[in-house]
Design a protein that fits this description.
180 residues, mainly alpha, Serine Threonine Protein Phosphatase 5, Tetratricopeptide repeat, 76% helix, elongated
């Protein structure tokens, strides 16, 4: 999610009402409470699903739907290259397969996402120049860096957030995730 900086005054100070601040932090809270405990379970499930679908492909290599299912699993694992290969196979079997075209378009958008994330990081870093003690910005920068596989920068940012607030539970949990 890219942020709108209309809340900035002319002097560059961030003006966020309480509701907007809550809406900004709440998705992060949900991420840590709901998603992180299930990550290991999902990894096991995805690898067995890939094996099962590969067996299906061996039995029915000319069914584009099976290639689409495998592509979607690869996409869930963030293996976009293999996902695209499977989608191209599905489309070579059925050039009018609309679902495969939609997933391929989604993957192309995902490939452009890192640039959008880098732009968002730059925007937050500009705000940090004006508000260097704002722990939530450091935390947001940590998550954004992690999303584009810049773990060193993510760890630096989360450490800075924890330096500002050592009791910040989401940052503590995120640091544990980075340490694994």
């Amino acid at each position: 999610m890219l942020y709108d900086f209309k809340g900035l005054s002319r002097k560059g100070k961030l003006k966020l009402p309480k509701l907007e601040r809550t809406l900004l932090v709440f998705p992060l809270f949900l991420f840590f409470v709901l998603l992180i405990p299930n990550l290991n379970q999902e990894k096991i499930s995805l690898s067995s699903d890939v094996s099962q679908i590969k067996k299906e492909i061996l039995q029915n290599p000319n069914r584009p739907e099976v290639h689409l299912k495998l592509a979607q699993l690869y996409q869930d694992k963030n293996d976009l290259e293999n996902a695209k290969k499977e989608l191209f196979l599905a489309l070579s079997l059925n050039p009018d397969f609309q679902e495969a075209k939609k997933v391929l378009e989604k993957i192309r958008n995902l490939e452009e996402e890192p640039e959008k994330i880098k732009d968002e990081i730059k925007n937050w870093e500009e705000i940090l120049k004006e508000k260097p003690g704002y722990r939530d910005i450091y935390f947001r920068i940590a998550i954004l860096n992690w999303q584009i596989y810049r773990e060193k920068e993510a760890l630096e940012a989360v450490n800075k957030a924890l330096e500002l607030d050592p009791n910040f539970e989401p940052a503590k949990n995120f640091k544990k995730l980075l340490s694994e």
